[in-house]
Amino acid sequence: MSATQVMLRWVLLIVLGVNVQIHAESSADLPLGMSTALTGPAAKLGLNMRDGVAAAIAEANRDGGIQGRTLRLIALDDGYEPSRTAPNMQSLIDEHRVLAVVGNVGTPTAVASVPIAIRKKTLLFGAYTGAGVLRRTPPDRYVINYRASYAEETAAMVDGLITEGGFDVTEIAFFTQRDAYGDAGYSGGLEALKRHGLTNDLAIAHGRYERNTDAVENGLADILGAPVSPRAIIMVGAYTPCAAFIKLAREIGLDAIFLNVSFVGSAPLAEALGDQGDGVIVTQVVPPLNSDLPIVTAYTEALAALDSAPPPTFGSLEGYIVGRLLTEALREVEGTLNREAVIDALESMGKFDLGLGVELFLSAENHQACHQVWPTVIRDGKVIPFSWGDLRKP
Fold this sequence. Notes:
This protein is α/β, with parallel strands linked by helices. Helix content is about 40%, strand content about 15%. It has helices at about 5-15, 45-60, 80-95, 105-120, 150-165, 180-195, 215-225, 240-250, 265-275, 295-305, 315-330, 340-345; strands at about 30-35, 70-75, 100, 125, 145, 170-175, 205-210, 230-235, 255-260, 280-285, 350, 360, 375-380, 380-385.
């Protein structure tokens, strides 16, 4: 077929409305996309995730790339605003022709990303969110996750507080972001409380704040106005408002344990809290940074090899694990490397060990590789491992 005939065929397909997908093998490298917060109040979360994915990609490239070709990450800034995520997704998929979108940050942004990924038949992989919108049953073919869900994180908190700490269900309150992210964590926490005997949702104090603000006063007032003074507050938010809430609550004398889900970002939260951080609990979906697990050792070396050599964080460790998981799958693809082949490779992984100390599993019926939750606590500005049994100690 001549070049002219090929061109005429493409034009005819477009006119007829056929969805033509240009495969990644049409270029010298393999582009991967990311829409994340590189600026704004949640920027540190996006930058950490980007660094971790970049470290895994650079590591794979040093080992010869994928099928002899170089991986390349295209990260676009959405400022943690879904109105900016949608055009980013369109650009990554249609203009940059990415093989997959990897490591997007946030739940409200995921709400915008998921339908685009499904409609355009492009993998959305390893998003930095534990929301249920990415965890449907049966799973969406084009959405695959690494991390434990927010429901699993808040359930771990509730189980620890009640079983180990002896808390009553009505002594646990919530402070959440007023959007899909906050709602996901709150709903998961309520379900866990109901498993422990909660019969009336209205018995649980709940304060909220607006995304990308630190206006926490009204949320705190709602919690303080509850009939039962809370002894523990589960927080589902970003690091800046959560730090502002904790500082204000302690300033007015509220004696409670503060617990945060992983998305808060442990390092930026500890930094924002300063000397007010001691005793704040954060659940993690990756192992402790000081562990001797193979994945943590490999991550530390890969991160140090980056030109910027950023300091280790839980967020960039998650990004690295997501990137490693994806590159491991890409290496298993035989023949044409396209968007569908990547998903097939991930779904074919079954049970596998990535060096986390827990077994991972992916299949066509299971699109969440890990369900493990690791509790940590802030002490002297550092985030260290924590045991729920420590709640019993004075």
